[in-house]
Amino acid sequence: MFHKIILVGNLGKDPEMRYTPGGQPVTSFSVASNRRYTGSDGQNVEETIWFRISVWGKQAEVCKQYLAKGRQVLVEGRLVCDRQTGGPRTFKRQNGEIGASFEVNAETVRFLGQKQDAGPENDTGAAPAPATEEEIPF
């Protein structure tokens, strides 16, 4: 069997790197992918899906060094399902709503845009709208 996910989005916060007990680096970061469309009522709708990305090995070190909140990336990898449910990891937000976190083990991370495109001060629209802590599921 084979599956692959390809997504493009912006980092929701700066990457975090740690090391496994065996010494292998792993970097984690969140990516928001937006979809805009017109609903059946004629109203514009914007949908944001958050993904939790894990990158391993040398690529993890490169991601930690060069990525920052707001930077646009293309990620290729595989979905990691919750072992209990077989779907995304679910959680309860502070406001009581249920949220979901889609986990991805990255095989390839491509940096898009310019390094200075990261951050809310960018006028090119590459950075997502600021998210509150409640909106980021991790």
Secondary-structure blueprint of this entry?
Elements: E1 5-11, E2 16-19, E3 25-38, E4 44-56, H1 58-66, E5 72-80, E6 89-92, E7 98-111
Parallel strand pairs: 4-7
Antiparallel strand pairs: 1-3, 1-5, 2-3, 3-4, 5-7, 6-7
- Main sheet overview: 5 strands, mixed, barrel
What is the annotated CATH architecture? Answer: Beta Barrel
E-strand count: 7
At the fourth level of CATH, the homologous superfamily is Nucleic acid-binding proteins
The string of secondary-structure elements, in order, is EEEEHEEE
* Percent strand: over 45%
Looking at the structure, the CATH topology is OB fold (Dihydrolipoamide Acetyltransferase, E2P)
Spatial strand sequence of the major β-sheet:
1-3-4-7-5
- In the predicted model, the low-confidence regions spanning at least 5 consecutive residues are 118-133
Overall geometry comes to globular
Spatial gap, N to C terminus: 30 Å
**Domain module tally:** 1
Radius of gyration, taken over Cα atoms and rounded to an integer in Å: 16 Å
Q: Your description of this structure?
A:
With 138 residues, the chain is mainly β. It has one domain (5-117): OB fold (Dihydrolipoamide Acetyltransferase, E2P), CATH 2.40.50.140. The protein has one helix and seven strands; from the N terminus they run ββββαβββ. The chain has one helix at 58-66, and strands at 5-11, 16-19, 25-38, 44-56, 72-80, 89-92, 98-111. A five-stranded mixed barrel has the order 1-3-4-7-5. Strand 3 (25-38) and strand 4 form a beta hairpin.
